[in-house]
Design brief:
The structure holds three protein chains of three kinds. Chain A is an all-alpha fold. Helix content of chain A is 79%, strand content 0%. Classes of the chains: A mainly alpha, B mainly alpha, C alpha/beta. Bound molecules: adenosine-5'-triphosphate (ATP) and magnesium ion.
Chain lengths: 280, 244, 261
């Protein structure tokens, strides 16, 4: 062990560390405020119709999605945000379950894996938005189209990563479990899935952003509700504040989904480390 | 691959699935071949590839230096991380309407969206690559009196290079999706998205849409394998047999 | 040539302040091979990093060729314990050795000559085109030494360079250090926690205490040269000296852990 690799902070006191932490938080807030402030100033001075000042956008977001309407939910929350979320999660979960199940099966059988690999590579590369017309013909104009499009697009990264993850498990582990005659179900839950977990999670991360893209584009091209639909409507009717509000809302949504994934990932990988599997 | 195609063909002969939904494999194949003789379609492909390539190139030119600097300067990263966390979650396609307003329906609009979409994977992969440099490597360079800039160029950059190429590969796939999405939505005059739009609004067969997608998919696979081959050529030390 | 005066260094501040080096003074004269020996964790790496100008110490002064050290001085090279981190995996062995020569304004021919000579000195002539990962641990450390030699430093600092190679290779590498020292007329400061190694190599041994660290003593080693792994180590003087060092490191204290290796 050489000292050069150690971080210089390892010996610092808790007090010093927490002041460092606080000043970091403070710095971030200062930057954020400065950023929004100068954005506000710039847009006000530019007075171009396309660039809407941030405070106006924020006010509009609050109006649209927090206050207006009856009951607990604002109308647009009920009409746009929830349908969008439902489509996204539906398609994404479908993709995840299918891709992991199929991926494990393919990953475990060598011959079959080699055989399907080129097909999978090709399917992943085919851009799903181009298939929107086909999905419309096959599934009609309902939510089925959007959910299946999201599922279709999000499945490939998870599938390919699952296959790769399962294959990267050393054969000694399979051999050991075979020697001890461990039943298949236990082998799956104790060797295969934990061994492939970090790869699968990486695939899920890519899929999440692809799923989000597909949710938005499918709503933009073929839907009468959802955030994507709202944004396009706003642009076509030159309601630019609404358009920006939609973009901001999508940013918030994307951020939250990413945070959720990060928490889940940490959970899984921690348990994974505790269980003594190496992560990479 | 061949077996699958035959299976699909048998499936469509059997009449289980109506050909309006899933066209027969032979039909798609025939249409795909036919497309290569279709000048209009070839121009569409060129238009899409152009926006895609420009977007990817500019995204690399922005993402790599940014990743190098922010990856090696803690303070710069702290300051800018707010901006990054603020911008990154915006799904690129959400910006299509804005881009249409600002840039119209042509290459500029598509390329600007492709830049936005592809800059993130390239930037983050560069950043992780730079952070991954062994501190001893940097100290070694310091004992040979390299300047901080020289360390960035001669130690951080080569170490991060494989990470960067991975980022470019991920970005290439996303940029293609975004470019075609933009064409679909903007009603661009040329591009694979424009082709799909023309076919489907003109009542064309689904097999023609499939054929267009097949070509796009083939292009994606091609670019990916070119980048993979480049990886093997450029980073031979990643592929040598390790001594025990 | 290199003078260390009342050097001290503390990591951290406040209640977590850890005084790694208390008071270190010694010097290295031109042409000498001085080894520094001390128990694990006594601050040898800290001391060496301060001398290389990689890190400012919290107290005292170091002078190299009369000048106080502020940044990394010219004419100084370091061989790190961690050769995996120190050799650049994306460069071949030859290019690794060439790496520090870019900054010196040398002609192509001269660069090639230095690289060839250095690789020959460590016996890696035929491995110039290989990547570091294709070599064994001992060979990698030899490549790192070749790189330092090609740089032609006035002083070479070595931080436990052989701590992670097997015993047989280690003896070979020790002899390699002695050879290149004669050949290139180098001044070497060699840090180790291995008592035998420190005595076998050195003209002088600086013995460090447990932390907070100070210099217990400096011993002159007047064993005959050239040294030999078997003959030198069976000399009564050698055995006497190594026992002296061992006793020094153990005696001032109660813990059994003081001497390792
Ligand atoms: N960056 C750092 N931050 C805080 N403490 C450190 C740091 N580097 C080293 N230390 C502490 O300083 C002391 C001396 O460390 P150093 O690595 O210099 O010892 P060493 O003699 O080289 O040990 P070894 O024989 O294990 O290489 C140790 O107690 C170590 O924990
Ligand atoms: Mg050390």
């Amino acid at each position: 062990m050489s000292a050069g690799t150690r971080a210089d902070t390892s010996g610092t006191s808790i007090a010093v560390r927490s002041t460092k932490y606080l000043s970091r938080i403070a710095l971030r807030w200062v930057v954020l405020v400065a950023l929004i402030g100068s954005w506000q100033l710039a847009t006000v001075n530019l007075s171009s119709p396309y660039w809407v000042p941030p405070f106006t956008i924020i006010r509009r977001v609050a109006e649209l999605w927090l206050t207006s309407g009856e009951g607990i939910l604002s109308t647009s929350m009920a009409q746009d945000v929830l349908p969008s979320l439902a489509r996204m999660l539906g398609g994404f979960l479908l993709a995840m379950v299918l891709a992991i199940v199929v991926g494990v099966a393919i990953g475990l059988s060598d011959a079959f894996g080699d055989y399907v690999d080129p097909i999978l590579q090709f399917l992943r590369a085919a851009p799903p938005p181009a298939l929107i017309p086909v999905f419309l013909v096959v599934f009609g104009t309902g939510d089925q189209t959007r959910v299946s499009l999201i599922a279709f697009g999000a499945a490939w990264p998870i599938l390919l990563n699952t296959i790769e993850g399962v294959r990267s498990i050393e054969s000694i582990k399979y051999e050991t479990s075979a020697v001890f005659r461990i039943p298949l179900r236990l082998r799956l839950t104790h060797i295969v899935l934990p061994g492939a977990a970090s790869k699968i999670l990486a695939g899920i991360r890519t899929s999440l952003s692809i799923g989000l893209i597909l949710m938005v584009i499918s709503e933009m091209v073929a839907s009468s509700s959802g955030i994507g639909f709202r944004i396009v409507q706003a642009q076509r009717s030159f309601a630019l504040v609404d358009m920006w509000a939609g973009i901001l809302l999508l940013a918030i949504l994307g951020y939250l989904l990413n945070q959720v994934l990060t928490v889940v990932e940490r959970r899984i990988l921690r348990w994974h480390r505790l269980a003594g599997h190496e992560t990479s | 691959m061949l077996v699958t195609l035959c299976l699909l063909q048998v499936l469509s002969w059997s009449g289980l699935i109506p050909t309006t939904m899933l066209p027969s494999a032979a039909q798609v194949l025939a249409d795909t071949v036919g497309l290569f003789g279709n000048t209009e379609f070839l121009l569409d492909v060129v238009a899409t590839m152009e926006a895609w390539a420009i977007g990817l190139a500019i995204a690399t030119a922005i993402g790599v230096p940014l990743g190098l600097v922010l990856g090696s300067l803690r303070v710069a990263y702290e300051v800018s991380s707010v901006v990054v966390e603020f911008l990154r979650p915006i799904p690129s396609v959400a910006l299509i309407p804005l881009a249409i307003l600002l840039f119209g329906q042509g290459t500029e609009m598509k390329a600007s969206l492709a830049i936005y979409a592809s800059v993130w994977p390239i930037f983050f992969n560069t950043l992780y690559g730079v952070r991954d440099v062994n501190p001893i490597s940097k100290e070694t360079a310091r004992t040979f009196r390299l300047t901080p800039f020289a360390i960035l160029r001669r130690v951080a950059l080569p170490h991060a290079a494989p990470f960067i190429l991975t980022g470019v590969r991920i970005s290439a796939a996303i940029a293609l999706i975004v470019t075609i999405s933009a064409e679909l939505l903007a009603g661009s005059s040329a591009g694979i998205g424009a082709y799909v739009l023309r076919i489907s609004s003109g009542g064309g067969s689904t097999s023609m849409v499939f054929a267009g997608t097949v070509v796009a998919g083939v292009l994606g696979v091609l670019v990916n394998s070119v980048l993979q081959a480049a990886e093997r050529r450029l980073f031979p030390w990643k592929h040598v047999e390790k001594a025990a | 040539m290199l003078v260390v005066e009342n050097l001290s260094h503390a990591y951290g501040t406040g209640t977590h302040r850890h005084l790694a080096l208390k008071d270190i003074s010694f010097s290295v004269n031109e042409g000498e091979l001085v080894s520094i020996v001390g128990p694990s964790g006594c601050g040898k790496t800290t001391l060496l990093r301060a001398m290389a100008g990689l890190m400012p110490p919290t107290g005292g002064q170091i002078r190299f060729l009369g000048e106080p050290i502020t940044g990394v001085p010219g004419g100084l090279a370091m061989v790190f314990q961690d050769y995996r981190g120190s050799l650049f995996p994306w460069l071949t062995v030859g290019d690794n050795v060439r790496f520090p020569l870019h900054t010196a304004k040398l002609g192509k021919a001269e660069v090639a000559e230095r690289v060839g000579e250095s690789l020959a000195a460590v016996g890696l002539t035929n491995f110039e085109g290989r990547y570091p990962t294709q070599l064994s641990g001992g060979m990698q450390q030899r490549a790192a030494i070749a790189r330092a030699l090609a740089y032609r430093p006035k002083i070479l600092l070595m931080d436990e360079p052989f701590a992670s190679v097997d015993a047989q290779t280690r003896e070979d590498l020790e002899d390699l250090v002695l050879q290149v020292r004669d050949r290139f007329n180098m001044t070497i400061l060699f840090v180790t926690h291995d008592i035998d190694e420190s005595v076998y190599l050195a003209d002088r041994v600086v013995v460090l205490s447990k932390p907070p660290t100070y210099v217990l003593t400096t011993l002159d080693i007047d064993l005959p040269r050239p040294r030999d792994q078997i003959m030198t180590k069976e000399l009564p003087e050698f055995i006497h000296l190594r026992s002296d060092v061992a006793r020094l490191i153990r005696r001032p204290d109660t813990s059994e852990l003081a001497v390792t290796s």
